[in-house]
Amino acid sequence: MHPERLSRIPSSKIIFVCGDGDIAFAPLWFMDEIIERIKEHNKRCPHKIYYFQSKYPKYFERFLDQFPENVFLLTTLETNRDEGYKEISRAPPPSERFKQFLELDYPRKIVTIEPIMDFDLDIFVDWIKQIKPQAVYIGYNSRPKQVQLPEPSQEKFWKLVWELDKFTDVIIKNLR
User: Fold this and answer.
1) Residue 89 and residue 1: Cα distance in Å, rounded?
2) Which of 33, 100, 150, 173 is most buried by a 10 A CB count?
3) Each residue of 118-165: pLDDT tens digit?
4) Cβ contact 25:59 at 8 Å
5) Total-model pTM
């Protein structure tokens, strides 16, 4: 948490709020300050887009009516499979994040599938379709030598991209 950074909004068009951590760990008062600062800054620069990302999407629930229209909510779904996930991450399992994000009544959502892990194509596509994201960021693990993950084949990766591209914008990152 860096309250001193609220005094200067970055010049980039898209701003990842708390981009190096999960915003759900910020105290509620800090989230209120961030939202107020964005509203204030929007008076001068309404063209910026703000990304709020969390692996605990339920955290956003209490703020939904406060977010300005240029705020997008994001969550990461690396896979649809819960089995073995606890050995990889302390975040809630993918199925829980999916349900939380789906239940958020908010029109501007984005899903990140990064780093992608092996998945069940039909189930995973259905999850994303139900969420109705405006975009999906997708890519392989950017640190494969440091972190070993069960990844899909490139053929399966591209099948997923093909299916997602039928109903949302797909932004591809970190290819091999």
Assistant:
1) 22
2) 100
3) 999 999 999 999 999 999 999 998 877 788 899 999 999 999 999 999
4) no
5) 0.92
